[in-house]
Amino acid sequence: MSEIIRLESITKKFGKVIAVNNVNLSIENGEIHSIIGENGAGKTTLMRLLYGMYKLDSGSMFLRNESVRFSSPKDAIENKIGMVHQNFMLIDDFTVYENVVLGLEPRKFLSFDRTLAREKVRKLAEEYEMEVDIDWLVGKISVGLQQKVEILKLLYRNSNILIFDEPTAVLTPQESDALFQIFQKFKDSEKTVIFISHKLKEVKKVSDRVSIMRNGNLLKTFINKNLSEEQLAEMIAGRKISKTIPIRTKIGKAILKTENLTILGNKRIPKVKKMSFEVKSGEIVGIAGVVGNGQSELEEAISGMRKISSGKMIFNGKDATRMSVRERRELGMVYIPEDRIRTGLAPLASIRDNLVMGHQNEKFFLGSLEFIKRSSVRAFAEESVKSYEIVCKSIEEQVGTLSGGNMQKVVIAREFSQNVSFLMISQPTRGVDVRGIEFIHKKILDMKKSGGAVLLISADLDEILALSDRILVMYEGQIIYSTSIQDAVSKKIGLAMLGIRS
C-alpha cells in the first residue's frame, strides 16, 4: 500500500484548550483505519481539520504527497475527501435521489434533469449493493437507510477517502454488518475508510490499523491483529476496564405500569399504539429498537413532557396519566433523555447551574427568605464533579463546551443525586467512551441494587443485553417481541428491531 494522507505536527486549540496536540499520522491508500480514544481525545477534531471544517493552528497536511490546506469542506470535497457525521445532513422532505445530488444537480439546459439524476443515483446504489428506493422521502426511511443516503452523497461526489464518525451508534447489528460489507467494497475498489468509533468489537472486526488518541495526543498506531479488544480498552483509558456484570436482585412490586398507551407524534399521527408493560422495583427493563420507532414519544409521555392521547399510566400506585413533570418527579421519577443537549441540559449555562436545575428549591440549597445559598450550590457542584469524574476546568465552565461523555455525566450526576424509586434513561452511552460506559453502567446497576426500577431505552443491543432483566422490542410504535435475559437470543432481537418476527 502507498501513503495517501500524511499529517505532520497538527495542532488545534480552542481558547486555552489544546484539542489536538502535535499529531503525526499516516494513512495508507485502500485501508480501513480506525481512530479511537476517550471523549475529548481529539478524534473528531482531527478529522474535521482534515475535512476543512476547522482551520489548522499549526502543522502540515499532505494528500498524495502534495501539501494541502483546506479552508472549507468544499475544498476537501474537491480533493475527493468526504465525511459522514454523527448527525446526518439530510432534508426529510426530499427524496433519496434529491438528497444525493443536492448542490450538484445534473442539468438539461437550465432545468434540473431529474431523469439523469435518478439514473446516476440508481447505478451507484446497484454498484455498492445498497437496497434503497431512490424515490422514497428521506424522512420516511429507517436510520440505516438514511446512512446509506449519506454514503451515496459521498460516492456521487467521487470521494475516495471516506470518514465515518460513530456510524453505528444507532444501527442494529444487521445494519452494522451491512455497513461493514460496504466498507469492504470500498477497500476492494482502493478507497480509503477512516472509522471513528467507541465500539471496540467493531473496530477489531473491520480495521487494518488502529490509531489511539488520548488528551489530544496520538499515542501510537497499531496493526489491528496485534492487539485484543481488552488491550485497546486499557490503552484508551490508561487502566484496566472491567466488563459490565449483571447482578441478581429481589424483584418487587410494579413501580411503573402502562395500560394501552397511545401517544401522538408532532404531526398528530400515533407514534405509540396501545402499549402495555410494567417495570418493577429491583429490575431493569430494556426497550430495544431502531431510533424513530416511537421511543422518543414514549419517554416524553412517561416523563410528562408529552400528552398521553389515550390509555393509562400508573406510577407508584397513583394514576399519573395527567400529572405534570414536577408531580412525577416529586413521586420519585427521574429522567435522563436521549438528547442531552436539547432536553437534558442548558448548554450556555454553567456546569454548576446545570447540576442543580430541577431541585434548586430543596432545603439544602435555600437560606433565609428562601434565597438560594450560593455556598451550598457550589459545594454540591464541586462534590458532584469529583464523584462523577466530570472532566472540566471549573464548575463555572459552560456545560456545552464539554465533550459528549462529560455532558452525559453532568445529567446523570444531577438526576442520581435525588432520592428516587424510578429511573428512565435513554441512549445512556451514545457517543461515550469505554471508561464513561463503565461508569454509567455501574451507576445504573447501583440504582437497581438499591431497589429502584429502571426503564432503559437504547438502540445499542450490546448495552441492552448487558444490563436488562427483561427485553422488549419496539417497532412502529408497538412491542413486537419480548424475552427474559435468560432466553435472549441476540439475532432474534436484532431481527425484531427490523420488524422481522422469527
Question: What would you note in describing this structure?
Answer:
The structure is a single chain. With 502 residues, the chain is an alpha/beta fold. The protein folds into two domains: 235 residues, P-loop containing nucleotide triphosphate hydrolases (Rossmann fold, 3-Layer(aba) Sandwich); 244 residues, Rossmann fold (3-Layer(aba) Sandwich), CATH 3.40.50. The protein is 33% helix and 26% strand. The strands form five sheets. It has a six-stranded mixed β-sheet with strand order 6-9-10-3-11-12, sandwiched between helices. Helix 14 runs parallel beside helix 15. The longest helix is centred in the middle third of the chain and has 16 residues. The radius of gyration is 24 Å and the shape is globular.
Could you give the order of strands across the largest sheet? 6-9-10-3-11-12
The largest sheet, given as strand count, sense and whether it forms a barrel, is: 6 strands, mixed
What share of residues is helical? 25-40%
Total count of helical runs of at least 4 residues: 17
Question: What is the average of the pLDDT values?
Answer: 90
Could you tell me the strand content as a percent range? 25-35%
Extract low-pLDDT stretches: none
Shape: globular
At the first level of CATH, what is the class of the largest domain?
Alpha Beta
Q: Care to count the β-strands?
A: 22
Total domain modules? 2
Radius of gyration: 24 Å
CATH architecture verdict of the largest domain:
3-Layer(aba) Sandwich
What would the CATH topology of the largest domain be? Rossmann fold
- The separation of the N and C termini measures 44 Å
CATH superfamily of the largest domain: P-loop containing nucleotide triphosphate hydrolases
Structural class: alpha/beta
Characterize the quaternary organization of these chains.
Answer: single chain
